[in-house]
Amino acid sequence: MFNTFIWDFDGTLFNTYPMIVQGYMLALKDYGIESSKEEIYRLLKEYSSAAIAKKFQVDFTELSDNAKLHEEKSTYLPKSFSGTKKVLRAVARKQKRNIILTHRRQDSTQLLLEREQLDDLISEIVGPENEFPRKPDPTALQYLLDKYSLDPKKTVMIGDRALDVDAGKNAGVHTLFFDNENLLHNIQADHRVTTMQEIERFV
């Protein structure tokens, strides 16, 4: 059905949220701000990390950098969601393309992929080092469409948050919402799945 699969990483391919939430909680604590796992997780899922900075009235760049430092010290080892390797392999086997578009640094993303031997299934990782505006801005997706001469009708953006879906819509590609927790109900994506296995039917 689709020829190019553009994946969000955190919360879509890998369950990194426990590590991310802890990082932001500890970063806020550096400011003397107490928060709960539930509150931080909800802000991340419904909005983005920028919403955390806005709610607690701290500088976003500084908060984000500090959270990443705490995250790097975490003993939590993120793993891919069940079925991830199978669907990525299905895409590659049909000589189609997997691309990652993430707010996570490229080196961190690459390391996690390598731990599960998934790195050879990915054509490119677009991360903050590319210095594109953050999702839902479509600039990064437009760069990929132009670079690989992609057909928007055969390209899908896959993610677990509204900002991923909105980025896809803004770029004029298909959108697929990965809602493995059945947590958000107002996401207007072209397609919705609750398991990674369901994505295989789009390959």
Labels describing this entry:
alpha/beta, globular, 203 residues, 8 helices, 6 strands, 6-stranded parallel beta sheet
Could you give the topology of this structure?
Layout: E1 4-7, H1 17-30, H2 37-46, H3 49-56, H4 60-72, H5 84-93, E2 97-101, H6 106-115, E3 124-126, H7 139-147, E4 155-159, H8 162-171, E5 174-178, E6 191-193
Parallel strand pairs: 1-2, 1-4, 2-3, 4-5, 5-6
Structural class: alpha/beta
Helix content: 40-55%
Q: How many helical elements?
A: 8
* Shape designation: globular
* Proportion in β-strands: 5-15%
Uncertain stretches of 5 or more adjacent residues: none
Mean pLDDT: 96
Radius of gyration using CA atoms only? 16 Å
Number of strands: 6
Q: Strand count, sense and closure of the main sheet?
A: 6 strands, parallel
**Order of secondary-structure elements:** EHHHHHEHEHEHEE
Strand order, sheet with most strands: 3-2-1-4-5-6
**Straight-line N-to-C gap:** 6 Å
Structural notes for this entry:
- By secondary structure, the chain is an alpha/beta fold.
- The protein has eight helices and six strands; from the N terminus they run E-H-H-H-H-H-E-H-E-H-E-H-E-E.
- The chain has a six-stranded parallel beta sheet, sandwiched between helices.
- The longest helix has 14 residues, at 17-30.
